[in-house]
Amino acid sequence: MLGYIDKIKEISERVLKEGTVEMVIGFQKGTLPMMNEPCFVKCSGDVQRLVWDSNCGINLANYLTDRKEKIAVIAKGCDSRNIVTHIIENKIKRDQLFIIGVPCNGMIDKSKIASMFEKEIIEVVEDQNNIIVKGEGFEETLKKGDVLQENCAICIHRNPVIYDELVSDMVEEQRDVDRYEDVRRIEEMEPDKKYGFFDDLLSACIRCYACRDACPLCYCPTCFVDESRPQWVGKGQDPVDIRTFHFLRAYHCAGRCTDCGACERACPMEIKVRTFTKKLEKDCLEAYGWEAGMSLDERPPLDTFRPDDPEDFIK
Amino acid sequence: MLFKNLMEHMGIEPDRVHFSWISSAESTKFVDVVNEVTAAVKALGPNKNFIIKAA
Fold this sequence. Notes:
The complex is a heterodimer. Chain A is an alpha/beta fold. Chain A has helices spanning 4-17, 77-88, 110-115, 150-153, 181-187, 191-202, 210-214, 239-252, 262-266, 274-288; strands at residues 23-28, 37-41, 50-51, 71-75, 97-101, 121-126, 130-135, 138-143, 165-166. Chain A is globular. The N and C termini of chain A lie far apart (53 Å). Chain B has one domain (2-44). Chain B has 2 helices and no strands. The chains are: A alpha/beta, B mainly alpha. At the A-B interface, helix 5, helix 6, helix 8 and helix 10 of A face helix 1 of B.
């Protein structure tokens, strides 16, 4: 995955020089370790800013919403699926995009790594399979496979589903992954226990809305939580309001979520916000055989009707 | 269905939320559904969760 960057730079430089696109969206090094940030390159001389490593977990489809210019975007498997969703939802046109596809081996979980060390981490470097964490007076090598983001560890679509050019050969997809073990564990609980489980889960939430802002699906001009006429949900720290926010935010992603993990990655309180969206994702797969963002030619389950849609919940 | 499932997943009892499609001409169905819903909810007792407590 480290070798990708030369190819990424080469393609970016070419498409900018040739005028195929006006802007390349990729990643540049962040100010903190393990925190690469999105980067918008507009002239070919600037492509040296681009980087690629295991800290590129942000979903770049988020920056395509309603853009008018021609854009090259670097897309992992999940980004590409969100780009498909964006195209289906008319948030950008396919012919505006030059998609640089990146077969992905998973991104690393910065919170998990930070929690493994008492001291501050100053530098994180990596080679093919290892992550080397350095700080004052310590240096430790971790296996990349052990510190993947949770959604990456269970990812079954690592390769881009849509692209104009690939930076390398496709990687092998993970097979025999149990994607919904955690959802089933909750499903087995009694209602009161479930309620308590989510109370605990959300107890740290500070209503910063970082999860919403990081999500490429959340592009409403005014989000329901910001609306004040009418005010759909209280704006304070009441646990019920917090829950309403998370619950409805997730529901707005029903049939659209690709489990890219951007929400969870963005959360400063390390709340596992994917717990909500994963239930919807599982139900969509089971009830409609649907995985979001896999094809431009198929309409999502929530805007189509099929005679065999499950309806036993309606009396 | 997704909505009901998510409500239940979050800890709302299955019998507390009901969905029905009743035409304005189906008065008997309406009565039946209302009776069914009230019986199911009464059996559960008062809702304890997902309530904003008055300050």
